[in-house]
Amino acid sequence: MFRLRAVLAALLFGAPLAANAAEITRIASSFDEDDPFDLILDAKFHRTQTHTKIVREELTGTQGLIERPEVWHKGSDTRLDINLAIGLYKDFEFSFGIPIVLQQNDNYAFTSATSESTSTIIKNTLNPDGTQRDTPLTLFPIDSNDPRKRGGLGNMRFGMAYAFFNQNRDDTKPMWIVGLDYEAPTAKLRDPSQDNRDSVGTRGNVGDRVHKYTLYTSFSRKVGVADPYFKVHYTIPVQGPGIYSNCFNLESQGTPGNCFTGKWSRKETGIQAPTVAGIVTGAEFTAFSDKTKSQKFALDIRAIGTYIGEGRYYNELSAALGKLLATQEYFQIGGQFGATASAGEAFTLRASGTFLYNTDHGLTNEDLGVKPEEFSDPSKKQDINPNFDFRYDLVSRRFRAVESTSFRLELSAAFAF
Hints:
Layout: H1 2-13, E1 39-60, E2 64-89, E3 92-110, E4 148-153, E5 157-165, E6 175-183, E7 210-220, E8 226-239, H2 266-269, E9 276-290, E10 295-308, E11 311-313, H3 318-321, E12 325-327, E13 330-342, E14 347-358, E15 361-362, E16 399-416
Antiparallel strand pairs: 1-2, 1-16, 2-3, 3-4, 3-5, 5-6, 6-7, 7-8, 8-9, 9-10, 10-13, 11-12, 13-14, 14-16, 15-16
């Protein structure tokens, strides 16, 4: 009866269990003499806010190529992650998770140096193929009170992990875990060309239809009140079924006649998600511990470094321009401060705040496909990249992200038995 009540409580409250080792090297283990079965129910609420200044290249006669401030992008992502970890054998874990994206918004507002009368976004006089327009046509509407909105179930995640060394089992060794996570493209496809502004009354989906395989290894070694740890991870993306291609919206293409012809297939013109590699290092410090009651309070301080490779995917301007956009590689650098409280062996609460700085990078960096001087050569026409848009992919018109920061607040609870 107690376990039935425990499971019901976990379903209601959920999240990551901080075991004797650092939370980053937690693992579910079964078939031990004193613990025949491990199951961890995990629920995590987190909200991420991103603030990015978007500038645009401009060619001047005196200063050459400069960057002109255009808009601030404010992104917010609020979600609830539900995770389940089961010990299949000693130090061998299977896990499953699904995110519920409660709200994912993009908001744009002019910078203090720009206004509707001076913005090149509003005064655009080019078509996607580079021809001149008779009258200006704005690239996208800018209204800080009219955000673009998305939400829904995210991609399911499945994982396997094994602890080669377990300090809880042998205190002469550290915790060493190796794992593989697979994110399946189960979420409904996000169509960037859909007008999902709040004033329109529609809400977009969040799926990218990309398989993601994440390899990782993590270490921790408890020494006194300190439990330092280290983790390395690497994510390989693979296009899945039903990926979005910019060629689905011919009006956004510079050379729409090349869509789905020759080498410009759906795969070639569609999403090309970036590879991601990162390092997490830090330590948990036990401020209070009562082993007789399995009570613990610990502080967690960590440094985070992540590399995001180049690709064509959903970035800060996709919701505005209605396209997958060729994005340059960049780094995320920052840190996290957290606290973990265990009321007993079965229940743990955790809270943390994370700050990240994103290095400057291009947001519209599509390749023309041919040399600029070959653009008017009829024999080279079929080689022109249909994704290339002369309004913002050409040097001197490209958009870039600068002064980009992210802040994430996480609250989680866990129940294990």
